[in-house]
Amino acid sequence: MAGVLAGRVLSGCAESAAADLARAEGLVDRALAASPRYALAHLVKGNVLRAQNRWGEAIPEYQAALTLNQNLVYALTGLGWCKLYAGSIEEVIPLVEQAIRLSPRDPGIGSFYHLIGAAHLLQSHTDEAIVWLEKTRSAMPTAQVLRSRLAAAYALRGETERAAAELAEARRLNGGDLFSSIAQLKAYPGAWWGVPETRALYEATYFAGLRKAGMPEE
Question: 80 near 118, Cβ under 8 Å?
């Protein structure tokens, strides 16, 4: 249950992110108190901390999960997201490539592709980002955050019509106001912008692209 609640926040689908995370934290702490060497519980704890933007605290939880179960691929990708948010972007793609090698037909393979695409986008490797984000779209067509990243990437490459279509789809899939404006997106409690260095990269790529795609400031 804690994993589902944290996942709902991380995917941008929570109606009340703060309430979901408070409940998730209590549940996973109970699980760890009962079974401190349970790898999955450490993975979920990492996800909860990541959703709370506590990336430095999440990293040792993912590492503990991998120590207990080196084949836990979602600990690798969770660690990758935290490395991205913490500013160690160059460490991200090797972690995800390891996850893909371990589970090349994983049902969640689209989320692996998404992380690689996000890393490329932040590094201004726009063409590479689009390749991986399009692979993500094929695997996870209803992933709303992915559609917004793809919108930004298309816009940065000058493909404004495709960008606008992806942004419209992100809004439709969300069904709320998350993607209504830059201000609304930045204010989301489970926001994913990272340390100042990473936030600067988001400003130069993701948010710059969304503005080009037609997202207003307010």
Answer: no
Count CB-CB contacts under 10 A for residue 108. 15
Q: What is the largest CA-CA distance in the chain?
A: 53
Burial 1-37 (b: 16+ CB within 10 A, else e): ebbebbbbbbbbbbeebeebbebbbebbeebbeeeee
The CA-based dihedral angle spanning residues 103, 105, 108, 110, taken in that order and rounded to the nearest 10 degrees = 110
Separation between Cα atoms, residue 171 and residue 214, nearest integer Å:
12
Tens digits of residue pLDDT in 91-121: 999 999 999 999 999 999 999 999 999 999 9
Q: What angle do CA 195, 94, 170 make, to 5 degrees?
A: 60
CATH number of 108-218: 1.25.40.10
